[in-house]
Amino acid sequence: MRVWIAMMLSVILLSGCGASTQVNNSGSGEQASSPLVGPRWILTLMGTDQPWQGDDKAYFELQPDGNGLRLSGSDGCNRLMGAVTLGEGRRIAISELASSRMACPGQAQSAQVSQLLSQAHRYLIDHDRLVLMGRDGHVLAGFRKTNKQG
Predict the structure, then answer these.
(1) What is the pLDDT of residue 32?
(2) Alpha-carbon distance 43 to 68, whole Å?
(3) How many CB atoms lie within 10 A of CB 63?
(4) Least CB-packed of 3, 134, 139, 140 within 10 Å?
């Protein structure tokens, strides 16, 4: 997995040279056709080396919502919801992120999920894998695409 992430980062760094840092709403039709929209993305790795350890899966899904995209999911304990804007150069901005507030003993990683999603600035998809990166280019998390049942 680390080799895969290193290769993906190399591609991103090379393709990102000279790219704009703004996220533009490129139209709801283009956003809705993004490969990010539709599937469930299951969190498998936090950063580059911390596997997800919760009993319940942390995940998110993106769906069209008016002129933008709506995020729904779970941090492994609480429900998540928010707004998403996709832009050129695989830019992503997650805003208005909110969650339920249930207490879940033994779910230390759950508290970090909202933070990493709100810091996402860029993404890369390779087959059924998704990597979210921060503004500084560091890997925030790795996800695996799956159907909504599992």
Answers:
(1) 78
(2) 23
(3) 12
(4) 3
99/71 Cα distance (integer angstroms): 11
CB 39 within 8 A of CB 61: yes
The pTM of the full predicted model, rounded to 2 decimals, is 0.79
Q: By C-alpha distance, which of 115, 114, 109 is closest to 54? A: 109
Count how many residues are written for the chain. 150
Contact (CB, 8 A) for 36 and 123: yes
Is 87 a residue whose pLDDT tops 80?
A: yes
- According to DSSP, residue 57 is labeled P
Lookup: tokens for 2: 């680390």
CA torsion 17-18-24-27 (nearest 10°) is: -80
